[in-house]
Amino acid sequence: MNQPLAYVSPQAKVATNVVIEPFVSIDKNVVIEEGTWIGSNVTILEGARIGKNCRIFPGAVISAIPQDMKYAGEDTIVKIGNNVTVREFVTINKGTKVNYETVVGDNTLLMAYVHVAHDCIIGNNVILANAVTLGGHVVIDDWTILGGMVGVHQFVHIGSNSMIADGCIVRKDVPPYTKSARQPLSYVGINSIGLRRRGFSMEVINQIQEIYRIIYLKGYNVSQALKIIEAEVDALAERDEILSFISNSPLGIMKGYSKLTAK
Amino acid sequence: MNQPLAYVNPQAKVATNVVIEPFVSIDKNVVIEEGTWIGSNVTILEGARIGKNCRIFPGAVISAIPQDMKFAGEDTIVKIGNNVTIREFVTINRGTKASYETVIGDNTLLMAYVHVAHDCIIGNNVVMANAAMLSGHIVIDDWAIIGGMVPIHQFCHIGAHSIIQGGALVSKDVPPYTKAGRLPLSYVGVNSIGLRRRGFTPEVITKIQEIYRIIFVKGYNVAQAVEIIEAKVEPTPERDEILSFIANSSRGIMKGYSRQRNKNLFSDTV
């Protein structure tokens, strides 16, 4: 914490064993908990709440004001969980009056150049690869992985345990457990490798695959598919998560890939 | 202005009420006018001329030399207007001997990671979303909105009130008042929402739509369409702006959207 070459506002609450490298600038109204490392040239502005054992790499800017024309100086925050890694030149903006906070969950990894916009809610164990850019109000559920240079449109919801290929532009909601790719973004299978790594049993994975076969491959529209799933697939935590995700998707979910769909 | 942890060259002209955060570095031959805020770790190099009430966020680099092999150390500048917001890690290069300056108009917003190359001329009230990348000599007219992660080819001209979809690739000129999207970049309609917000009447918007229907939808080539518009559409300022934009377009304008072409483009991906 003792760093003569950094600027730490006397009103910031920084735990004693936080390591602060040279040329860091920490504003007032900032909380940083134990064990966190702040690399050189990092700027942490008003409203940042940073958890335990995080690592923030050189050049990152946390809690700058939203890039939103509506923003009128409201007192909002950025909440970062524990064990979060924030790599070089990441920018995380604080919330607007819509929900007053931007949230990054525990154990999440934000690789270099990632941008997290105002009011985004990122879950636990998420990985955003280099230069992923989120629009405002994006929700990303736990264990999701976004490939490099993915751009996400505002208000999009990305389901848990899903995986999005590099370079995609995401304009629609991405349901949980799926793999998605191509332009326009399409379902290309379920994230079976990710699920296996996280201890899902073969039976559960097969069940999820069955559900997505009904949604994306059999040529039904979404509301038909939902009815069939409710009638024919046994109730299961994963089934219910998928159904509730789809019925709570105001933007609509991504499409199936047309070549694979039954004619 | 009094910031013991920043470096401000004694030859820089910085107005007294400019706020400079720690670890800022300001070179000689820089002018910064009243009311501007300079966030921490910003670097402002020789040739920057920054207007009133601008906000420059942490990590931005203004007026570094052009990324251009021709550049031989000429004395060129970056001119930034008033009320401009420059977000984190934006890079704005100064001009080459082609036009000696890079210009950003008033009230413009450049979101995080935007790059403005040498000799670009950006108008007033322009919004460039995250990581939009301009190459050299680009002209962007007033009120245009460039979506996130859009790269623009050098020497392109983007017309006023146009809007470009996030993630699009721009290698042709985008005429005024249009919406552009898809791959390759195509006309996908008139920017009617933007025009309405800025007080254009429904009559004017419909007129503009008619003009673009002739250019992009009816199957004429550009020269034919221009002839028809000149003959049949009564002159309005908007009509004349569109015609002069097209006549002065050295790279040519973007295409209309064709379902067939798009189908061919993706047919090989399985």
Summarize the SSE layout with pairings.
The complex is a heterodimer of chains A (263) and B (270).
Chain A (H helix, E strand, L loop, with lengths): L6 E2 L4 E2 L4 E2 L4 E2 L4 E2 L4 E2 L4 E2 L3 E3 L4 E2 L4 E4 L12 E4 L4 E2 L4 E3 L7 E4 L4 E2 L4 E2 L4 E2 L4 E2 L4 E2 L4 E2 L4 E2 L4 E2 L4 E2 L4 E2 L4 E2 L7 E4 L4 E5 L1 H6 L4 H16 L4 H11 L4 H11 L7 E2 L7
Parallel strand pairs in A: 1-4, 2-5, 3-6, 4-7, 5-8, 6-9, 7-10, 8-11, 9-12, 10-13, 11-14, 12-15, 13-16, 14-17, 15-18, 17-20, 18-21, 19-22, 20-23, 21-24, 22-25, 24-26, 27-28
Antiparallel strand pairs in A: 26-27
Chain B lengths: L6 E2 L4 E2 L4 E2 L4 E2 L4 E2 L4 E2 L4 E2 L3 E3 L4 E2 L4 E4 L12 E4 L4 E2 L4 E3 L7 E4 L4 E2 L4 E2 L4 E2 L4 E2 L4 E2 L4 E2 L4 E2 L4 E2 L4 E2 L4 E2 L13 E4 L4 E5 L1 H6 L4 H16 L4 H11 L4 H11 L7 E2 L2 H8 L4
Parallel strand pairs in B: 1-4, 2-5, 3-6, 4-7, 5-8, 6-9, 7-10, 8-11, 9-12, 10-13, 11-14, 12-15, 13-16, 14-17, 15-18, 17-20, 18-21, 19-22, 20-23, 21-24, 24-25, 26-27
Antiparallel strand pairs in B: 25-26
Helix pairs in contact in B: 2-3
